Amino acid sequence: MTETSPLKENLARRIAGEILLAKMPGTTVKKWREIFGATQTHLAQELQISPSVISDYEGGRRIPGARFIRRFVRGVISFDEQRGGHTLRTLGLIAKIASDAVIGIREFPIPIQAKAICEAVDGRVMANESGLDSDIYGYTIVDSVRLVVDFSGTDFYQLFGSTTERAAIFTNVSTGRSPMVAVRVHPLKPRMVVLHGPRKVDALAVDLARLENIPLVLSKLATTDDLVHSLTSLYNGVVERTNASTRMATR
Q1: CATH code for 6-88?
Q2: What's domain 99-240's architecture?
Q3: pTM over cut 0.70
């Protein structure tokens, strides 16, 4: 990926704009650092500053200005490129298909338990209920028909194969077999799978979820809009609690 890559330029503008517009910019700084898999120490080395400075920005004790934001954006992208550019490629794939197949993408500022996702979607657990204690760092809602019809199998697998700590939520599902077959054949897995649409889940889908030890949940919400609204409410609640905790910690 070259220095003038449109992907990098667009992503850099997106990250910088999100930090500048955030009510709690430190939380957004932390979110993007974690998305790129960098520790505070890694990022501090990249920016040639002390890790305590990064901690101060993330904790709200310092307010990031334009100069720091530019350095931060360059730093996390450079960190990823030095390790193969995996996150850049993943974000590029998501941007490619988000307008049609992907209905919603969220990154939680802190991990939540999978059972919170299950409750938000009014879910019935079909397999591996014990896995609902696992941490979830985000979710992706996908129209499974559009994804299969409009994009190659490689795109399909990469979208979920590179987001292993996420909930993969499939809408417009008939039986659940195709999503679980896709999960099965790829070596990297989502943390949980939610199906929305079928009256009855295919027995093979349940068997594959058990083989992969992935919680499989059937959402009983009536419509896709209900699903999106409920998950958005969950996300907003997590953000509000995180922001409240940050404010308390900085007093």
Answers
A1: 1.10.260
A2: 3-Layer(aba) Sandwich (3.40)
A3: no
